[in-house]
Specification:
This protein is α/β, with parallel strands linked by helices and 360 residues long. It has 12 helices and 13 strands. The two termini are 14 Å apart.
């Protein structure tokens, strides 16, 4: 089959990285893949082929006739069997391009979060309802994401399934030694956005330091709120206990070197970083949001109800002082068995075949 993967832009974010990784596996299975980015970006994504850019204007993305036309020309030339829209503005561009320029390929939307969290007005719900009525299939990253979608848009019933995010098989080649050497290391990997809740993480760190002063927090990632969090660290006088790294090419090496991986997000779909922690056999502590409870439970990690910062701190301390090897091994086996991209690519192929058959 021919698959066109539509991504928001070349950026180091889970949706784009996963789309590129899956595309590599689809090609290995004998399918043809073309990746198209809506907006410009400067990240190097894990994909060996060309990534075509529409060079669309973000300021004009709600009425971008030029961008929709460029996408339609690519689709007309390539003649894909399926167009897969992967988060961001991709669904909007796919739907309006198809409506206005009348191309025929079915659209599969990859739902990687809880859409209901972003519907803040009746207009947004009506607008999204219009978009969702124009698609052929939805692959939700978790059971929670799927239920949230169907709760807000029940007309999609019968047109959704769960296909989780996955991992690549990786050999750890570049090792990281976290400093200072004499302390316990907490690692957080994620963009600096409100969903990731960095301010809450700093409050949790303060609670941990009251019990164990020999702890250091390593923040891996970049994003719009990074400067604000750097100022918050100074305000809370935590400079000697927090390090910032920006974007790194080898976050797995940081996770592997950590004593514990933390994810106190307030909104998530099914975060790949937790799977990476389990793959590295690093203890995981996370808030119970989105689909996290589908992978983190008493057998695989420590799950804390959202905003219970004291209990989160206690979970981190327990993971540092008394890591449970049985739990760590359970988590590793689960990831290897259920969340590797080689197998997940086959699930997407099954979906493509289903919607192509239905179209015929």
């Amino acid at each position: 089959m021919k698959i066109l993967q539509l991504i928001h832009k070349p950026q180091n974010r889970g949706a784009e990285t996963f789309a590129c990784q899956i595309s590599g596996h689809l090609k290995a299975l004998g399918h043809q893949v073309k990746i198209v980015a809506i907006f410009e970006g400067n990240a190097t994504l894990p994909y060996e082929g060309e990534i075509i850019c529409l060079n669309a204007s973000q300021g004009n993305r709600f009425l971008d006739l030029r961008g929709w036309r460029k996408l339609s020309k690519i689709i007309s030339s390539y003649q894909p069997n399926v167009v897969q829209a992967n988060a961001g503005d991709t669904l909007k561009y796919a739907v309006f391009s198809k409506i206005i320029f009348d191309w025929k390929a079915p659209i599969l939307f990859r739902n990687a979060s809880e859409v209901g969290r972003y519907l803040t007005s009746p207009f947004q719900k009506r607008y999204n309802s219009f978009l969702y009525r124009k698609i052929d299939w939805v692959a939700s990253v978790s059971g929670v994401s799927e239920r949230d979608l169907l709760e807000h848009f029940p007309f999609l019933k019968g047109k959704t399934e769960i296909i989780p995010i996955g991992l690549e098989i990786k050999k750890q080649e570049s090792l990281v030694r976290l400093k200072p050497f004499s302390v316990k290391h907490i690692v957080h990997v994620g963009g600096f956005s409100f969903e990731k809740n960095h301010k809450g993480l700093l409050r949790i760190l303060s609670l941990i330091l009251e019990k164990v002063p020999q702890v250091h927090l390593h923040l891996v990632g970049d994003g719009p709120l990074k400067e604000e969090i750097e100022l918050e660290v100074k305000k809370m006088k935590l400079e000697s206990h927090v390090s910032f790294y920006g974007f790194v090419n080898n976050p797995l090496a940081f996770i592997d070197a950590a004593d514990v991986l933390v994810l106190p997000s307030i909104i998530e779909g099914l975060p790949g970083v937790i799977l990476e922690g389990m793959y590295c056999k690093t203890p995981v502590v996370a808030y119970n949001v989105g689909g996290i409870s589908e992978i983190v439970n008493g057998d695989t990690g420590i799950l804390v109800e959202k905003n219970e910062e004291q209990k989160f701190a206690e979970g981190v301390l327990k993971s540092i002082n008394q890591p449970e090897n049985v739990r760590i091994d359970n988590a590793y086996r689960m990831v290897v068995k259920r969340y590797m991209n080689e197998d997940i690519a086959l699930k997407f192929v099954n979906s493509y075949e289903k919607i192509v058959t239905d179209e015929e």
